[in-house]
């Protein structure tokens, strides 16, 4: 019985920071295990060691023939069993957030117990399996998070491309460069793009070019081809570039609308 290992809360002890088990008023001792884990989940991480030492001292005063190994083995078994219960629950359960918090707390407890384990209790087969199950659970959670992130990202993906006609890729790039010079209504930059490669990545990913030499098929726009015209020569002026787009590709001009007074 857990009541023989852990110190029950004294009657009318209303302290909020107690490490003892149970309620300050009458409560069912048959539910001691439930109250034990309620306390374990409530204490802060920096008091886990204090919790362990307090209840170990209680156990030793009540069992002259006992020892720390027996107490540690018993507490390890309880935490190990509860971890298995929590990790066996569906990660999509409505109480998932609470379950994950409790799993992290119990894992912190196992770290403290391992530091006190001079008998290698944590290296027993069951303990090793429990640790492996915890690692598997953590990986499953990471996979679930990544899948959710991927699903969120994919809803904005497209299989189509914007096709640039007649080899006018540099004309499109020139328009992108002009867009960087536009001003918002407050007089500041309309588009803030300190990373010039962002334009190259955008065009290379979402645009394709007609391949006139291959019966009108489309081809990928190589990102290095675009970067050639985006390399800057002055860090303080990203629009001043090492290589200018040839005049024959500067076909269009973006002109802001002049609104009347």
Structural class: mainly alpha
**What is the overall silhouette?**
elongated
Q: Low-confidence stretches at least 5 residues in length (pLDDT < 50)?
A: none
Q: Report the major sheet.
A: 3 strands, mixed
Q: Give the number of DSSP strands.
A: 3
Number of helices: 8
**Oligomer class:** single chain
Secondary-structure element pattern, one letter each: HHHHHEHHEEH
Instruction: State the strand order across the main sheet.
Output: 1-2-3
**End-to-end span in angstroms?**
86 Å
Q: How many discrete structural domains?
A: 2
Average pLDDT confidence is: 85
Strand residue content: under 5%
- The radius of gyration is 33 Å
Report the helical percentage: 40-55%
Task: Please characterize this protein's 3D structure.
The protein has a three-stranded mixed beta sheet with strand order 1-2-3. The termini are far apart. The mean pLDDT is 85. The longest helix is centred in the middle third of the chain and has 30 residues, at 125-154. 47% of the residues lie in helices and 5% in strands. A hairpin with a 5-residue loop joins β2 (207-211) and β3. It folds into two domains: 2-154, no CATH class; 162-249, no CATH class. The chain has eight helices and three strands, in the order αααααβααββα.
């Amino acid at each position: 019985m857990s009541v023989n290992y852990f110190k029950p809360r004294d009657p009318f002890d209303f302290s909020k920071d107690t490490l003892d088990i149970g309620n300050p008023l009458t409560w069912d001792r048959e539910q001691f295990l439930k109250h034990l884990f309620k306390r374990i989940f409530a204490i802060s991480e920096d008091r886990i060691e204090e919790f362990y030492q307090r209840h170990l001292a209680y156990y030793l005063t009540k069992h002259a023939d006992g020892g720390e190994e027996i107490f540690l083995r018993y507490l390890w078994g309880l935490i190990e069993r509860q971890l298995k219960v929590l990790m066996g629950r569906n990660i999509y359960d409505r109480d998932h957030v609470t379950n994950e918090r409790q799993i992290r707390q119990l894992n912190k407890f196992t770290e403290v117990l391992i530091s006190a384990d001079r008998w290698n209790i944590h290296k027993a087969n069951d303990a090793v399996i429990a640790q492996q199950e915890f690692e598997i659970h953590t990986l499953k959670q990471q996979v679930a998070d990544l899948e959710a992130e991927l699903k969120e990202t994919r809803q904005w993906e497209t299989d189509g491309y914007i096709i640039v006609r007649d080899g006018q890729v540099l004309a499109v790039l020139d328009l992108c460069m002009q867009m960087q010079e536009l001003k918002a209504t407050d007089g500041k930059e309309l588009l803030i793009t300190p990373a010039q490669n962002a334009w190259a990545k955008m065009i290379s990913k979402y645009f394709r070019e007609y391949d006139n030499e291959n019966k009108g098929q489309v081809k990928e726009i190589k990102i290095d081809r675009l970067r050639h015209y985006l390399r800057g020569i002055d860090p303080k002026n990203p629009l001043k570039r090492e290589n200018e787009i040839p005049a024959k590709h500067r076909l269009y001009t973006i002109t802001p609308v002049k609104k009347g007074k």
